[in-house]
């Protein structure tokens, strides 16, 4: 069972690296625009992200509900269609560069996510699942992981939407 889990995670990593989504440090400053309303726009992907995560541990089963019911507490109410991101979208925010050391998240771990987005710990939930388990992206190690449904330690919500 453990070998299958590692295989699925390795497959996610391989496919997103194959698509060229993992490395863009020199363009990060030009690519991302802070909108001064709690959001960041990614000009390359056509996505809008919340500028910060939910700031606390949260179970995957509660993540979508948080987006629907609590997101408007931190982001302008003018936007709609917020959702959980895919692993590929989350990996597109990871900066894998020797020139970028990342920053220390509130939980004490180093994260290598674009500096325009501030997350409070290393794991961000995705809409993906593998082997019946939810998948989170680890911004400390730069790879997706399956997480037990009864675990929420270090797991956060970062909402995304398509720009219309």
Residue windows where pLDDT falls under 50 for at least 5 positions = 5-26
Radius of gyration: 15 Å
| Overall morphology | globular
**Cross-sheet strand order for the largest sheet:** 1-2-3-10
Concise synopsis of the structure shown:
This protein has 164 residues and is of the alpha+beta class. It has helices at 2-18, 28-31, 60-69, 87-91; strands at residues 32-34, 39-42, 47-50, 103-104, 110-111, 123-130, 133-138, 143-146, 155-156, 160-162.
What would you say this structure looks like, in words?
- By secondary structure, this protein is α+β, with helices and mostly antiparallel strands.
- It has one domain (2-162).
- It has four helices and ten strands; from the N terminus they run ααβββααβββββββ.
- The strands form three sheets. A four-stranded antiparallel β-sheet has the order 1-2-3-10. A four-stranded mixed β-sheet has the order 8-7-6-9.
- Strand 6 (123-130) and strand 7 form a beta hairpin.
- The radius of gyration is 15 Å and the shape is globular.
What topology does this entry show?
Blueprint: H1 2-18, H2 28-31, E1 32-34, E2 39-42, E3 47-50, H3 60-69, H4 87-91, E4 103-104, E5 110-111, E6 123-130, E7 133-138, E8 143-146, E9 155-156, E10 160-162
Parallel strand pairs: 6-9
Antiparallel strand pairs: 1-2, 2-3, 3-10, 4-5, 6-7, 7-8
